[in-house]
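Below is how a single chain appears once it has passed through the pipeline. First comes the sequence as given, then the structure the pipeline wrote out for it. We keep one example in the README because the format questions we get most often are answered faster by looking than by reading.
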Amino acid sequence: MESVLRKKHYLRVLRKIKSHFPKYKIDAFITTFLPHIKYLSGFSGSNAICIITERNNYLITDKRYLQQAQNETFGWEIVESDSDVLKTIIGKKILQKSYRIGIDGNHTAYTKYLEMKSIFNESKILPISELIEDCASVKEPYEIECIKTAVDISSKVFEKILDLIKPDIRELEISAEISYLQKVFGAEGDAFPPIVASGKNSAYPHSHSTKKKLKYGEMVTLDFGCVYKGYHSDMTRTVFLGKPDERLKKLYGIVLEAQNKGIETAYAGVKCKDLDFVARDFINKLGFGKYFTHSLGHGIGLSIHEAPHISYRSSEVLQKGNVITIEPGIYMQNIGGVRIEDVLLITDNKPKILTKASKELIIL
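Resulting structure:
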């Protein structure tokens, strides 16, 4: 049953991509970016190039991955290549000389672009930066189910990991256990190295786990995610080891309320910059605006950060089917930081919160 759903999913994705060819006035599209190859075809190997034309779809890879490509993809002609993939394309006559060829503009090195222009010198090479990004930002049902499973795995790990948070354990030990448990619960691996930041380390928005030992009276920020069938989860919780002082409890309450306000505002048609403003303005009016130093959130899927971007700089508008994070934070040097992050599915009305882990103030 799952194979049937996957086949339908990838065929829908290809139809969606090709429906945009007239907009960009192209006859073919090429990508070498592995997350985009995964999005288009389901192929999870580490070496490939995808070429899509109006009539055909080609996945070019080397001998190591031929059988894997056959097993993982639907609707693709698998082409074996030696070390020079571009010459293979010429030799197999995959692209006509008259083609206008779109390339994955955000993920094609300039040197590769120049090489393509030289080899396909009778074709027009057009860097296109938004074709796959725009399509991939609105998730198909199969993708949503994969993200839900990834999010559920991370939520289960959070509940388990609480028993490990005690004085004198090192941040790195907790980080290692998170990685282990995510795999135990079915993940392929970590979405990124798990962040465990305690005490003053939690004042760094993107800290990293260290040999520091946890102490009573500290906040502990846990930021981690996993990968399931190529799709990512991302969650952050801040817990307290021992009774926190009133100042720290106040920070937690402000961040939680800011996140709730952001979640209430997250529905299709809302400008991403306006969503960011709602949470940021709440924190700013309480006098902590300068301590909220990053954007409110980001899209998530086959990449940990993708469109749409929930930032005051963004010109994007939320669409039904977007999957995003909402993650306000306050970070004060020599005191510590609080961040709370959930994954949401955007609908026409109230968003669906996919992250099930508790956000109540947890004192261990």
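The longest helix spans residues 141-161.

See the next section for the split statistics.
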